[in-house]
Design goal:
45% helix, 404 residues, Aspartate Aminotransferase, domain 2, two-stranded parallel ribbon, binds pyridoxal-5'-phosphate
């Protein structure tokens, strides 16, 4: 029966993480997986989440099914976190939000919804993007294309452009050619894998393009609070909604609350009015019903408890700020060590990029050498997870990078 089934080559990032776990070298450094580690190299358990968990367990009753769309307190807390309590899109009820199995689950439910209700539309993702974006949209039967994004630099341009920025003009030029109702996947902040984000002014310049071309933005907000802060990182979503655009947004709590394995995220669809949002919510529920029926309870209640209690919320904001600041400190430490090792070379991209990742520009064979000779693990695209650096390994990582 199963002779025709070919072996799964494995997910490039998750396989690398498995190889890291098996590597016997004591000095190994994992800068591959997209997980935030603290300065001791551990995945933190946030105190705000620990307190919320004690409350959730103390109050826990019979474990019935949640509704298909998830828990009401979680869904409304998500809308407030994303858009702000007084945002017109929230108060007018024109956002359909479901709790999802991680934001991956939300992204896929949204992709299935698009495949069903926008059958002629194709999806456009940044070049490069998180590998799983392509996999999930193609998995839903959609055609996935790329728009220019990362600027690898051009020494011959005048003035010469250093690597590590955004090729905004080329991005917009491509978006201007897309047919109406094309889906444009955008990283709301902390672009994965490059760390290169649009500035607020660039977001504002993008809005008329999206409107004029009748494009449907699909935001991925997996790192809210890891860039410039909770509110600043939600700016793009708020600006697009305020401009009256319809949009999708998948958001995650995996990183911002360090609850990876709880698989907790959401999908929100901002519509023109409450009636549309009602219909969209109904069809999202139907999509969920045909997939996994309803989301799990626990992670959503941890998140809703933290967001719903002013003391826990304050504590969480402090803990999130500490994670963000540690990443920034590691960016600076790596930058300074690289400059010290290779004077005259420009590593400024490490300081201007945001979030957990930076693109190093290393080729796959250099990444292989780094792993084989120095036990430093990066993704083969050259993506480096800054959140895997700490005060104990950053100098060694910089030394290995300089020697590669
Ligand atoms: C850009 C991006 N989107 C979505 C996700 C999915 O996160 P989760 O499914 O854990 O919420 C990730 C995780 O690495 C990511 O980097």
């Amino acid at each position: 029966m199963f002779e025709h089934i070919e072996p799964y080559p494995g997910d490039p990032i998750l396989s690398l993480n498995e190889d890291f776990q098996k590597d016997p070298r004591a000095h190994k450094i994992n800068l591959s997986i997209g997980i935030y580690f603290d300065d001791a190299g551990r995945i933190p358990v946030l105190e705000s989440v620990r307190s919320a968990e004690a409350r959730v367990l103390a109050a826990s009753g019979p474990k019935s099914y949640l509704p298909m769309e998830g828990a009401a307190n979680f869904r409304s807390a998500v809308q407030t976190l994303l858009f702000g309590a007084g945002h017109e899109a929230v108060t007018s009820g024109r956002i359909a939000t479901i709790q999802s199995v991680g934001s991956s689950g939300g992204l896929k439910v949204g992709a299935d919804f698009i495949a069903r209700f926008f059958p002629g539309s194709q999806v456009w993702v940044s070049d490069p993007t998180w590998d799983n974006h392509r996999a999930m949209f193609e998995g839903a039967g959609l055609t996935v294309n790329t728009y220019p994004y990362y600027d690898a630099g051009d020494a011959r341009a005048s003035p010469p452009r250093p690597a590590g920025g955004l090729n905004f003009d080329a991005m917009v030029a491509t978006l201007r050619t897309l047919p109406p109702k094309s889906i444009v996947l955008l990283h709301a902040c902390c672009h994965n894998p490059t760390g290169v984000d649009l500035t607020p002014a660039q977001w504002d310049a993008l809005i008329p393009v999206l409107r004029e071309r009748e494009l449907l933005p699909y935001l991925d907000l997996a790192y809210q609070g890891f860039g410039d802060g909770i509110e600043a990182d939600a700016r793009a979503a708020r600006a697009l909604a305020s401009a009256g655009l319809s949009l999708f947004i998948a958001n995650s709590f995996s990183k911002s609350m360090s609850v990876y394995g709880e698989r907790c995220g959401a999908l929100s669809v901002v519509c023109a009015d409450a009636q549309q949002a009602d219909n969209v919510l109904g069809q999202l529920k139907f999509t969920v019903r045909r997939n996994y029926s309803s989301p799990p309870i626990h992670g959503g209640q941890l998140v809703a408890t933290v967001l719903g209690d002013p003391t826990l919320r304050d504590q969480w904001e402090g803990e999130l700020a500490a994670m963000r600041e540690r990443i920034l400190a590691m960016r600076r430490a790596l930058h300074d060590a690289l400059v010290a090792n290779s004077p005259g070379r420009d590593f400024g991209y490490l300081l201007s990029q945001r979030g957990m990742f930076s693109y190093t520009g290393l080729t796959p064979s250099q990444v292989d050498r780094l792993r084989e000779q120095h036990a430093v693990y990066l993704v083969r695209s050259g993506r480096l997870c800054v959140a895997g650096l700490n005060s104990g390994n950053v100098q060694a990582a910089a030394q290995a990078l300089s020697e590669t």
